[in-house]
Amino acid sequence: MAYLDGEDQREWTVTKSTPGADFAHLSPGDRVELSVERHDAWLIVSGYSELDH
Predict the structure, then answer these.
(1) Region (Disordered): which ranges (predicted)?
(2) pLDDT tens across 14-48, in order?
(3) What is the distance of C-alpha 14 from the center of its chain?
(4) Residue 11 above 60 pLDDT?
(5) What separation, in Å, do the N-terminal and C-terminal C-alpha atoms of the chain show?
(6) Three-state SS for 12?
(7) Cα within 13 Å of Cα(49), Cβ side
(8) Are 35 and 45 a contacting pair, CB within 8 Å?
């Protein structure tokens, strides 16, 4: 599980089951782009990709 801080001061969580880049290669300070879906009042990360450092 990884906790992510957004530039808009929101906090997000991704797990190994979240579609995206190789989870094992994420390190503190890495930048990722999130794909977010709205489900009623909830915003859920549906995928992510690693950005260049």
Answers:
(1) 1-20
(2) 888 888 877 778 888 888 889 999 999 899 889 88
(3) 5
(4) yes
(5) 21
(6) strand
(7) 3
(8) yes
